[in-house]
From TrEMBL:
Domain STAS: start-end pairs: 39-142
InterPro entries: Anti-sigma_ant, STAS_dom, STAS_dom_sf
Name of the protein in its database record: Anti-sigma factor antagonist
Coiled-coil regions listed: none
Family of the protein in this entry: Belongs to the anti-sigma-factor antagonist family.
Species classification: Bacteria, Bacillati, Actinomycetota, Actinomycetes, Pseudonocardiales
NCBIfam families reported for this sequence: ant_ant_sig
CDD domains found in the cross-reference section: STAS_anti-anti-sigma_factors
Length: 142
């Protein structure tokens, strides 16, 4: 017996994938801002969504700072509303670069969208995670 598969046309996008007329793209989904914090710590404040499309921006910012850093680097993820597997990959890459450079790396995270993937994957036991910037000041020591 031979199975007959229905014919599929790729001339049109499926209805669900159609773009609604008049729909404008929103603001930049991810921003990364460097803030030097005395004495000598750099805080990279991340705002938006970290996913497959935006993670290269985050990775570039982190690796740029780690290449030229001698002071601790704090990654502030408190304003991140979505954190996908690509974000975990970026944090693993940043951690490896920080270890190689001899730079202390800390992460500030306090929301479910960020903490859940970190916990499920066990990254919460690998990274130095703090609930806020005040606690991340401990990043300078040790």
């Amino acid at each position: 017996m031979t199975a007959v598969l229905p014919s599929v046309s790729f001339d049109r996008l499926p209805h669900a994938a159609a773009v609604l007329p008049g729909l404008q793209p929103g603001p930049e989904p991810l921003t990364v801002t460097a803030q030097p914090v005395p004495p000598g710590t750099v805080v990279l404040a991340v705002r938006g969504e970290v996913d497959l499309c935006t993670s290269p921006l985050l990775q570039d910012a982190l690796l740029t700072h780690l290449r030229h850093a001698s002071a601790p680097l704090v990654i502030d993820l408190t304003d991140v509303g979505f954190f996908a597997a690509a974000g975990l990959t970026v944090l693993v890459t940043a951690r490896q670069a920080a270890v190689t450079a001899g730079v202390r790396l800390c992460v500030v995270a306090n929301s479910r969208p960020v903490l859940l993937p970190l916990t499920i994957t066990g990254m919460d036991r690998v990274l130095d995670i703090h609930p806020d910037l005040a606690h991340a000041r401990l990043c300078r020591s040790g």
